[in-house]
Amino acid sequence: MLEVLAATVVLAVGLGATFQLLNSSLRTTSTDRFRQAETSVARELTEDTRSLAYTGLTSTAIASALESMVSNSTASGSTLTVSRLLSGTANQDFPFTATFTSCSMDDPADGTGDHSQPPASGGSWCADVGSNGTADSQPDDYRRVSVTVAPAGGRTTPTVQQTVLIYNRATHGPAVTCLSLTATCPGANQTYSTGTQLTFNVTTTTPAASVQWLVNGSAPASTQLTTGENDPYTPSSTTSTFTWVFPNTDGTYTISAQAFDSNGNSGTKSQLQISLNLHQAMPPTSVTAGYNQQIGGVDIQWVPSVDQDVQSYDVYEKSGSTTTEVCTAVTGLSCNYLSAPSPLPEPASCSTSSTSFTTADNYWVLGVDTNPATGNPRESTNKSPVVDADLCDHPPSAPTGLTGTLSGGQITLSWTAPTDPDSWDLVQFWRVYRWAGTGTNNYPGDRYDLIGTLDSSGNQVTSYTDSSPDPGGVNQNYCVTAVDTHLDESPCSNAVSG
Q1: Strand partners, 180
Q2: For residue 210, what pLDDT is reported?
Q3: CB 312 within 8 A of CB 331
Q4: Could you give the C-alpha distances from 105 to 14, 102, 142, 206, in angstroms and in order?
Q5: Contacts from 150-154 at CB under 8 Å and sequence distance 24+?
Q6: What confidence category does residue 443 fall into, taking pLDDT thresholds of 50, 70 and 90?
Q7: Using CB atoms within 10 A as the burial measure, which of 12, 218, 374, 393 is most buried?
Q8: How many CB atoms lie within 10 A of CB 210?
Q9: What is the DSSP string of 85-154?
């Protein structure tokens, strides 16, 4: 027994050491994954910082300026929270915080300037700018921008820091040092709920042969130019102006200016974001509504409003003399109304698709933006086209021969396309349904994804790949339906598991 006891102690000690090594290895692997992701985020952000206006490279302005440029990001002060995929975590998005610091530096090669006052372009001096002097009248030669990336969500390590130097001089041509709506530089982003146009002030480092200004990266439409105005234009000195006539659609617009010399060389550009909220939200120009026999209600879908500042949509229904709001604050472009009056039974055949075969059931959509006076949501009085959901339409046949192939942690579904019994109608898209465990599909609650019927080359699509078919280790079931142009839906295909 003593020998067995001794052997057990030795085995326990060995296993403990082994588990400790495994735990240490897992921690190291996890740290390496985070450091790799952080390095990628830091590299992306430092490169994006180079595209910002020099006058906007301050610690408090960089994060908010990058928010509109960097996907899956939210700015708060000098910190930008960025969500990125973390390798080895089943393609899971993980949040990282990127904190920016920026300061101006004086290159002693052209003399030392006076650092007793903040740089003319804003911000502050770095600690190592040297003693004050008067030999350099423009001492703000370059910015040192640093970004420190750390994991969010309760974890504090590891962290990665990268630093980039951005010069305040044209590398090839004249630089735009200031783009502003006032005499103050740097210019500030603004929101307008009244007016018809804005005049921008442009300042360049040296006289430019031409200045080009852009709206969201493209030349302004002719309707956005004042009478006799050209873009690009020829400035008479290092200061000039241009006038932007507001477009008809609300939203946030990036206005940028870039200067060129006589050889076409350009330097650093500057930009401002102008938000317009001049009118109530413009409604969708196209709406489709149809009674879906599978869900026992009406499906409604629409195209987005041309206004960029629409927060959501409200959907209304009128059957007889009663008007009902059936979908509220929809952030997408579709909804369903399961309490819609049923028009069934449908005629065995229909001679046309444009006539309601029963009492009309009408639907329309309104956009919701922000009331500039109160800051509260504002439902527009502008109504989309009104459509009848009770047009004679038979659902397509169900897709057949559904198969599922598992490979590399993904499942690829394939099926055979059905036909539509109505000669004037076509299958518009497929719906994939997914549900966990045992049981059958629930309409419409198990709707998982929507797929068009044609690819970019016009070829028919009858397959779909689910990149995460096993969430939480629970087996998933799939089936596919066909939906026609009137949003009537076929029964589900056979089901497969993956």
Answers
A1: 201
A2: 94
A3: yes
A4: 58, 10, 5, 21
A5: 150/38, 150/96, 150/97, 150/99, 151/34, 151/38, 151/94, 151/95, 151/96, 151/97, 152/81, 152/94, 152/95, 152/96, 152/97, 153/94, 153/95
A6: confident
A7: 393
A8: 18
A9: EETTSSSEEEEEEEEEEEEEE--GGG--B--SS--TTSS-B-TTS-S--SSBS----EEEEEEEEEE-TT
Least confident of 114-128, 147-161, 198-212, 302-316: 114-128
Type of residue at 377: P
Of the candidates 413, 419, 453, 418, the one whose C-alpha atom is nearest the C-alpha of residue 433 is 413
Indicate the residue type of 8: T
Token pair 């020099």: residue: 54
How far apart, in Å, are the Cα atoms of 299 and each of 33, 329, 406, 487? Answer: 44, 16, 32, 6
Give the position of tokens 């109504």. Answer: 383
Nearest to 314 by CA among 362, 381, 368, 361: 368
Q: In the block, which residue shows the tokens 């206004």? A: 307
The Cα 60–Cα 80 span in angstroms is 11
Amino acid letter, 169: R
Centre a 10 Å sphere on the Cβ of residue 477 and count the other Cβ atoms it contains.
Answer: 19
Q: Which of 232-236, 267-271, 432-436 has the lowest mean pLDDT?
A: 267-271
Residue written as token pair 């142009």: 485
Taking the C-alpha atoms of residue 442 and residue 444, their distance in angstroms, rounded to an integer, is 6
What's at 303, amino acid-wise?
V
